Amino acid sequence: MISYAEALDLFGSDDLIGIGMQADSVRRRLHPEGIVSYIIDRNINYTNFCTEYCSFCAFYRPMGHPEGYVHPKEVIFAKIQETLDLGGTGVLMQGGLHPGLKIEWYEDLLSSIKQRFPIHLHCFSAPEITNIAEVSGLSLRDTIARLRDAGLDSIPGGGAEILDDEVRHRISRLKCSTQEWVDVHRTAHQLGMRTTATMMFGCGETLEQRMNHLQIVRRIQEETGGFTAFIPWTFQRENTSLGRFVKEEATAVEYLQTLAISRIYLDNIENVQSSWVTQGLKTCQLGLRFGGNDVGSIMIEENVVSAAGAHHRASEEELRRIIRDAGFVPKQRDTLYRTYFLN
Ligand code: SF4
């Protein structure tokens, strides 16, 4: 393990290849069999109504907006059936923070999906769970336990952005604080659920603030061991109000450097994802030599980053090809990163 100060020094280094090689050796230690995984799943955004007005978000619509929606259950069922028909194993269901949907609405949705479909439900980021608890007048623990009992299998790391309250105050003033994000994940882990950790960087934060984020994630993992993966991606500025202030998106070099440092510093988290959705296939492929051992989802449907200008597309065969061409063995996985599939 390297220290916070050593990791911060790597951010100041211009030896990109050296950092990549160091990350690659951590990746090899954790995944000596040379497998790079991907998942077939689908993002379902059950509502785009939201009360938080995050400045980096091009997805939400304010309450009452004519383009706002809450998907009826039948629409969600049809999307899940389509996912299963395409060989999918899970759905990542997230939405805006709706002030009128109480926990019973979510319990009914989860249990009616589970009654109909054999599918892993990876749903509701920390801000949504905090919102459900508030709207329903429940403790965080009871909220997560009730969602779990209704069918929630695991929790995505969305809503982390940069876990530093100065940054959060600037880009998502109304959304959950660093402590609230930590509390959701820690509580879920204590209740026996697995979650992922994410980081959206390149939104004007300092390198120290980026490191603070990595340190928080590392400490939670030391305490609970509940994170399955770390998934960093870059802020996509198109159609966002923050994009008027952050003139340049992070470059591919900055992405690869941050990915590699994440792999080196977070060596207590088994999986690190190289993102093709925000970076494109070529950078994603390079990321496999900068510490990444997973390329994420083939993304049957994705509305949030495409609303902010990321329009990359890939089929399963393309993802398998870039993995093979980088010298690895492609394997389909499930949401909990199990690659027991025979392919
Ligand atoms: S990022 Fe999430 S919480 Fe923020 S405005 Fe968008 S949908 Fe709402």
Can you characterise this structure?
The protein has a 4-stranded parallel beta sheet with strand order 5-6-7-8. The chain has a 3-stranded parallel beta sheet with strand order 9-1-10, covered by helices on one side. It has helices at residues 4-12, 16-30, 73-85, 103-116, 126-136, 140-150, 165-171, 178-190, 207-224, 252-265, 276-279, 281-287, 304-307, 316-325; strands spanning 35-39, 41-45, 90-94, 120-123, 154-155, 194-201, 227-234, 271-272, 294-297, 329-333. The chain has 14 helices and 10 strands. The model has no long low-confidence stretch (mean pLDDT 94). It is globular. Helix 10 links the parallel strand 7 and strand 8 (271-272). It is an alpha/beta fold and 343 residues long. The chain has a single domain, classed as TIM Barrel (Alpha-Beta Barrel). The structure holds iron/sulfur cluster (SF4). Residues 50, 52-54, 57, 59-60, 96-97, 127, 172, 175 line the site of iron/sulfur cluster (SF4).
Topology:
Blueprint: H1 4-12, H2 16-30, E1 35-39, E2 41-45, H3 73-85, E3 90-94, H4 103-116, E4 120-123, H5 126-136, H6 140-150, E5 154-155, H7 165-171, H8 178-190, E6 194-201, H9 207-224, E7 227-234, H10 252-265, E8 271-272, H11 276-279, H12 281-287, E9 294-297, H13 304-307, H14 316-325, E10 329-333
Parallel strand pairs: 1-9, 1-10, 2-3, 3-4, 5-6, 6-7, 7-8
Helix pairs in contact: 1-9, 1-10, 2-10, 4-6, 5-6, 5-8, 6-8, 8-9
Iron/sulfur cluster binds at residues 50, 52-54, 57, 59-60, 96-97, 127, 172, 175.
